[in-house]
Amino acid sequence: MKRYTTILISVMVSVAAMFSVSCVHDLDVTPIDPDIQLPEDVLNSVGAYQQLLAKCYGGLSVSASEGPDSDPDISGIDGGYGQYMRALFHLQTLTTDEASCVWNDQTIKSLHGLGWTTSDVFVTAMFSRIYYQIGLCNEFIRRANAAPEEFKGEEMDYMIAQARALRALSYYHAVDLFGNVPFATEANTVGATGPDQISRYDLYLWLVDEIAGENGFREDLHPAAGTEYGRCSQEFATMLLAKLYLNAEVFTASDDPLYGGSNRTPVSAWTECAEECRTIIGDYPISGVPYNWNFSADNNLSSEIIFAVQSDAVNIQTYGSTNFVIKGSIVSGNPAWQEALGTNDGWGGLVVTPQFLDLFDEDLDGRFLFTDGSEFGEEPHSREITDNADFSCGWCQMKFTNLKHDGSPADGQGGYPDTDYPIFRAADAYLMLAEAELRAGSIQQDGIDAFNAVRERAGLSPLSQVTLDDILDERAREMYWENTRRQDLIRFGLFTTDDYLWDWKGGSYAGNSVDDRFNLFPIPANEINSNGKLEQNPGY
Is the pTM value of this prediction over 0.85? Predict the structure, then answer.
């Protein structure tokens, strides 16, 4: 079993109970312990605050205090599909050419078909998870700032910086997925009426300043070399900042007064993105890291991963995260297939579109990790998804596994994986550098070299000239199922249009364009109804 960090060893349930009040007005967060103690009763040492911070990290990994689905933190949100990383996959990956789900669970077909509504349960689950996390982090920061003087010092400042970093990650997901959103910090009064709405433009500016402004948290974090695995590092902050800069044109939406109505040009942001990416590339060489190591049961030992949401077969059991992507890719009742991915079960749900498979050179690209099932004795799956309710229509991923990168079994027994889910890894920065340079004017040699470093690791020959189309396709091959595809397609203007179609886009087998409103998800109807300060996103 992997060495388990102190971040997630244990969470004081009596402390966790304080989060029963959400920053979203009507979000009913159920206390974990019915015998609620006052925070003052349990926050009686620096160690108690460390355990409280653990809840902020743990909220990304699990959706319940005990077991995979014992008593979900958020009332009314299923502990399985409501787990943070699974909810993120639903909205960022299942809505694209990367994945389709054959299940008939509630409105899940509407995600891949780009036809969701304001009452979609999966959209609501992600929104709720984001704001549950923000509420946790706000409460930690509030309590830490008010801690007795004897508890304050370097360690407390470091913990506050981590909570701010985790809050920024969730606000980054909010600005990307939902645009204009409720906004609350530790300065807001707990239990007050619903928070005000912040424009997408202003939230983008707040996030940039929160990370790297005069009082930004980046400098209060530790460099990766001195950071325990699983904690937020300065490099985490750098990657988050680079992501914001890369998507500045989308997030600032300068042509739409609803999002700020600024004449801001994104060129300076792309230049800033390139600079931040150079920092990452200088610290994270990828040439010696096998690609598959980043998605294996021992990926906590990969030197390429900057931040990942942790999994553990014993200590962190969930029906989401990598448990979902691994078991969802395997037919039920096939031991050979299960053994190939190091697990003991298959849920038979997730497949990949043929349009996505066509992006690969199947014979040369080492990242082509897909199967039609025939190697495990199954009748070969069709490449086309002619029936989006049939698991035999569409190939399956073999990228995420619960085996170690050398193929040996994981330390656990396969019931739950040891494979962590990467949020940020270095190869992303390599490709971001090339794209940012191109968007800012012209690609430089360092951008071409970074781009080719990713290709050559995969077994492909380098390119002497690189276009934006090359970068989009390379990002697809390198980053699939890492929850970046929707954002990439939107940035390249391909998500809603008929310039690029895939099976069941728009709800039809041949695919069709959809209204541009689907570039954003709606604020859930229950939030709009309960908070009169909120305005719905355009078109919903």
Answer: yes
